[in-house]
Design brief:
By secondary structure, the protein is α/β, with parallel strands linked by helices. It is 45% helix and 15% strand. A hairpin with a 2-residue loop joins strand 20 and strand 21.
Length: 633
């Protein structure tokens, strides 16, 4: 019997109806067909795999590249009463083991979110084989394609799951993919006759605007004064986000800044203030926006030009999700083209620099030669660059190339609270307490205060424990670490920092191998996408929405949107031309005149405009030439 999809939608998400395309995609998945779904930002991609997974018996494996996004989604599912788990390289091996076991034996877990590199782990694959899997969902599926703007080679390993469970359907979802990327997704995931659902890339309520200016700050103030409402402003670096927020506040606008270098507490407060409209304008890097569910964003401003149409479309698309008119404004400078060329060297640094970054990174983290594989380390790029006097953007690019060549993995900063689980039985605990009275107070407090600590991981706050047992926080942490070494318990301290996860043991920098063919290909495609982005900014008469839709090979009819800056300018020209035609016809109705008399002694711009009007009226048959004079027909 087919489950009631509308009932599931209403029960957990409170919606009465699906958005356009969602139900077709869901039915395709329930029919066990491999599916590719291209839906715009805010189009409800997650529901396209979450609802069918809930409608079927078993667990859905969700693969995503961003730990922060996975955590956001699992937290949301838990809040609405759906059991979901998350495994990634920042968790302890014991906790990951426990989660994977629960996914096999606890029949109520419906979603397991994981990063793609985890799929290569033999331990994961062995557990995956024993799980009752109903669906594999690949989020941000464009990451699998070298033609895509965010290629991640670990995505190429996802298809290995097909060898283990060949009959489990796969759904791949993304907001932005060209036809070449869609073809790549199907091939690289080994999809069988996939159903491809492509929604239109048109955003009928979104007005795309480009403003070239020598004075970006002045233009910015004019824009935020004119367009009222919740605003996201994207800048290229952390320093700029803070400086622009300060500028806006000085001019009377409620603004704040957000980037990955802030602590988790700071990020959560800023995000909540913006969501609750305590802050109108969030100045941010692209670390802000993923998973943000705010429908009434009226304005998205890009203070600098993104590197690709894909990135721009996705970020600009965070405006106007409620369907009301909104604006996506891109500020450009005459020198942007030269700056973009300079960025090519930043995005693809010299091989010697990449070797140096790798070596210094291993040294700073104190990784011995021949060791480090599958180890995670807290990593703050700002401090690293300051220590070695590196440019932050170039260093980040070097790390991304190391990631693309599968030497390491960069994880975004997320808040992972401290967790404890007692591993020993009661007899061992009693023996330890008697032999080491120093442990007695802490162990008894943990057992008394946290029910279930013998069976699963419990979230703790070291400061609260310290206050209760009248110790210092440092003493509590020290003793927890000692008990962990004794394997009495497993203790994972809270994490707020970005992390680096090493996929291989440390080697000498001279032995570092990089796929130069891949790097050159990625550089070529990067330049191509960059060129298309520059071309977009220089459009004069063409509809900007149509340009974006054509870039993604939108199959719909490309009619001018009517609300982008170019369409508005074209309409004004048309109105002006119509007015000019009417004036000229009125002038000539009783006074036939030569063309020379009409255009001589006029400024060049008026002369050219009038000649164009005369030519059009002659072509339309509205005017005739009689005895060298223009007459109304």
């Amino acid at each position: 019997m087919q489950p009631d999809l509308h009932q599931i939608l209403k029960q957990y998400w409170g919606y009465n109806t699906f958005r356009k395309g969602q139900e077709d995609i869901i039915n395709s998945v329930i029919a066990a067909k491999d599916t590719i779904a291209l839906l715009p930002t805010g189009g409800g991609k997650s529901l396209c795999f979450q609802i069918p997974a809930l409608a079927m018996e078993g667990i859905c494996i969700v693969v995503s590249p961003l730990v922060a996004l996975m955590k956001d989604q699992t937290d949301r599912l838990k809040k609405i009463g759906i059991k979901a788990e998350l495994v990634y390289s920042g968790k302890s091996s014991k906790e990951i083991d426990r989660i994977l076991d629960n996914c096999i034996f606890a029949g109520d877990i419906k979603f397991l979110y994981t990063s793609p590199e985890r799929l290569q782990n033999p331990v994961f694959q062995a557990r995956f084989e024993r799980m009752n899997v109903n669906l594999i969902a690949v989020d941000e599926a464009h990451c699998i394609s070298q033609w895509g703007y965010d290629f991640r080679p670990e995505y190429l390993k996802i298809a290995e799951l097909r060898k283990i469970k060949p009959n489990i359907p796969i759904i791949a979802v993304t907001a932005s993919a060209t036809p070449a990327v869609v073809k790549d997704i199907a091939e690289k995931l080994w999809l069988k006759d996939p159903i491809i659902y492509k929604s239109s890339f048109e955003r009928a309520n979104l007005s795309y605007v480009v403003r070239e200016t020598d004075d970006k700050t002045g233009q910015l103030l004019q824009i935020v004064d004119k367009i009222i409402g919740t605003t996201i402003l994207y800048a290229n670096n952390r320093k700029a986000t803070k400086e622009i927020a300060l500028l806006l506040n000085k001019n009377g606008y409620q603004a704040d800044y957000y980037h990955a270098g802030l602590t988790m507490i700071e990020r959560e407060k800023k995000q909540n203030d913006w969501l609750q409209n305590k802050i109108r304008i969030m100045c941010c890097t692209n670390a802000f926006g993923m998973g943000i569910d705010k429908a009434d964003v009226r304005l998205v401003i890009h203070y600098e030009m993104p590197d690709s149409i894909e990135a721009y479309y996705q970020e600009a698309g965070r405006a106007g999700r409620d369907g009301n008119k909104s604006f996506a404004v891109l500020l450009t400078h005459p020198a942007d083209e030269e700056k973009k060329k300079e960025m090519q060297a930043v995005r693809f640094p010299e091989f010697s620099f990449i070797q140096e970054v790798y070596n210094h990174l291993c040294s700073q983290l104190m990784i011995p030669w021949g060791e480090g594989q599958y180890s995670s380390y807290d990593f703050e790029i700002g401090a690293f660059c300051k220590k070695y006097n590196y440019d932050t953007q170039t260093t980040y690019s070097a790390l991304k190339i190391l990631e693309q060549n599968q030497w390491l993995k960069l994880n975004d900063a997320i808040h992972e609270p401290s967790k404890v689980m007692i591993l020993s039985d009661e007899f061992t605990l009693y023996k330890l307490e008697v032999e080491n009275p120093v442990y007695d107070t802490l162990l008894k407090f943990l057992l008394r205060s946290y029910g279930g600590i013998l069976d699963h991981y419990i979230i703790i706050q070291e400061e609260q424990i310290a206050a209760k047992i009248k110790w210092t926080t440092a003493q509590v942490i020290e003793l927890l670490n000692k008990l962990k070494k004794l394997e009495v318990l497993d203790y994972t301290p809270r994490k707020d920092n970005p992390q680096i996860y090493f996929l291989e043991d440390r080697i000498k920098k001279e032995d570092l191998l990089l796929d130069t063919q891949l790097i050159n290909f990625l550089k070529t495609t990067y330049i191509t996408r960059q060129t298309k982005m520059l071309e977009y900014t220089k459009l004069v008469d063409e509809c900007r929405s149509n340009y974006i839709r054509d870039y993604f090979a939108d199959e719909g009819i490309l009619l001018p949107c009517g609300i982008c800056d170019n369409c508005i300018a074209n309409r004004k020209k048309l109105d002006n031309n119509k007015s000019s035609e009417e004036k000229l016809l009125k002038l000539l109705y009783n006074n036939p005149t030569t063309i020379a008399d009409l255009v001589n002694n006029q400024p060049s711009h008026i002369k050219n405009e009038r000649l164009a009007v005369i030519r059009k009226l002659l072509d339309d048959g509205e005017l005739l030439v009689v005895d060298a004079k223009l007459c109304v027909k």
